[in-house]
Q: What sequence folds into this?
């Protein structure tokens, strides 16, 4: 039985879901870096998001676990959402929870469509699957679904950025 337990926290008006343990590794609270210390531009964050998506699709490389590829899919979506925060001129929380990132964007007045919101399932790959023995193996279909979610988030963020006059390469 896994020691990972679903945890619910609140972020203003939206309930967020995350993962925590009842063991010695408790999830740290998120923090926001001061505005004058933000690394990179929205375009650079999108470049990294696309690179993570390319890694997530590298399933033909012998020896790579699908769990690690799903982690890259989550990273792709996370980096894209953080690019949107920067595009909006807003600091982003230093968290891996896509639910928290999306809630913060909603708090900034961004309407998040249902298909983008469904990508919150990727959050488990940022935490749970990075620790051997606490998860079930990822199957091919699940990996393909993770890529689909990441692609939806990236496409949506690109549209949002373009609407705000920020061109993505």
A:
């Amino acid at each position: 039985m896994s020691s990972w337990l679903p945890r619910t926290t609140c972020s203003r008006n939206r309930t967020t879901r995350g993962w925590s343990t009842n063991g010695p590794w408790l999830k740290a609270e998120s923090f926001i870096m001061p505005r004058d210390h933000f690394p990179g531009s929205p375009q650079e964050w999108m470049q990294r998001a696309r690179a993570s998506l390319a890694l997530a699709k590298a399933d033909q490389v012998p020896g790579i676990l699908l769990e690690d590829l799903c982690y890259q899919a989550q990273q792709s979506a996370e980096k894209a959402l953080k690019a949107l925060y920067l595009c909006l001129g807003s600091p982003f929380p230093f968290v891996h929870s896509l639910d928290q990132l999306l809630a913060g964007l909603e708090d900034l007045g961004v309407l998040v469509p249902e298909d983008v919101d469904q990508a919150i399932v990727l959050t488990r790959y940022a935490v749970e699957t990075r620790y051997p023995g606490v998860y079930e193996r990822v199957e091919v279909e699940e990996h393909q679904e993770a890529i689909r979610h990441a692609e939806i988030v990236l496409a949506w963020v690109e549209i949002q950025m373009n609407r705000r006059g920020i061109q993505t390469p």
About this structure: Residues 56 and 161 are 23 Å apart (CA to CA).
